[in-house]
Structure formats: C-alpha cells, structure tokens
Amino acid sequence: MGASNVPINARTLFTPFEEAARASFGPETSILGRSVPSGDLGLLAASALIAGIATILMVLFLKTELGAAMRATGDNARMLRALGTAITARLLRDGADPVTATLAGMAGGALAGAITGTIHVRFKVNALLSGILVMTALYSVNLRIMGASNVPINARTLFTPFEEAARASFGPETSILGRS
Which of 25, 63, 99, 163 would bridge 38 by S-S if both were Cys, CB 3.0 to 4.6 A apart? Predict the structure, then answer.
C-alpha cells in the first residue's frame, strides 16, 4: 500500500523554480515593503509560466477543426445541462449512486456537445443552426429519459448521510432561534 501524501521535503515540479529564486534573491526578498520568502517568488514564476503555456496551447487548439467543434457547443449549454440533469435525476430515482449518476449526467452532456460540434464541423452546418437542431432533439430525448415532464426524486444523495445524522442527533424538528 502506498503513502497517502507526498512528504514535505520531496522534490516536485516546482522545486527547481524555488531553488533558482533562492539562488537569485537569497532566502528572503522585499516586495512593496514586505518581506517575502524567495521560494514563493519561484512558485509564482512557475505558476505564471504554466498558465501562459496552457493559454497558448488553448488558443492554438481552438484554431483547429476539433477546437471549432468544441466552440460550436456553446450555443446550447443550457440544453446540455438539462440533459445532464435529466440523466442524473433518472439514475438517482432508479437508485444509482449519486457520484455515478452525476458522472453519467456529465457524460451525457458531453456527448450532446460532441454531436453539436460534429454537425457543425463535419456537415458544415452553421454553429447556431446545429445548436438549434440538437436542442430540439434533446427536448424529446430529455422527456424520454425522464419518462414524464416532471419527476420527483426521493433518492439518496450526497447529503443524505448528513441529513440522517442531524435527524438522529436533534430529532425530526429542531428549534433554531425560537423557530421550528
């Protein structure tokens, strides 16, 4: 069985940046009249470098065909959330684990977004029109998944153990600030 955490003195991705900052500035330096450990400056520089590289890669990716497909999914974000909610609600109602139901809902929304992007890029349909087409189809799909237009969920959720513990500790009704 492995260790649960990395030891405090372990070398990480940021260690060379911390060491370089300490070598350049000494153990501490002053910024705007405040004393700051030089290792923190190294961490700041490393974080800025990683964020900059991630930004450049994202901009380059969004200029590709696949990136254009992903941009096209922004037109129907509400309907994608509705699909994810419908899948999650149905699974919770049927007794699925809350984490599994949430992940399945996320996967359903991602699949619908991929379909929108595919219609836009592969079939050369305008992004707005492809979003409208998928939203229209998802309205029927959501109703089919739910089985009805409004479904009550009386299932265990992530918060159910906390609710049960509170009821066991305080009883079914508790007075808070004089109110039941």
Answer: 25
User: Which residues neighbour 162 within 8 Å (Cβ) at sequence distance 6 or greater?
Assistant: none
C-beta of residue 39 within 8 angstroms of C-beta of residue 47: no
Rounded Cα distance between 99 and 171, Å, is 28
* pTM exceeds 0.70, yes or no: no
Full pLDDT tens readout for the chain, 180 residues: 455 565 667 777 788 888 888 898 888 888 888 888 888 888 888 889 999 998 898 888 777 776 666 565 554 566 667 888 889 888 888 888 888 999 999 999 888 888 888 888 899 888 778 877 888 888 888 888 888 777 666 666 677 788 888 888 887 776 666 665
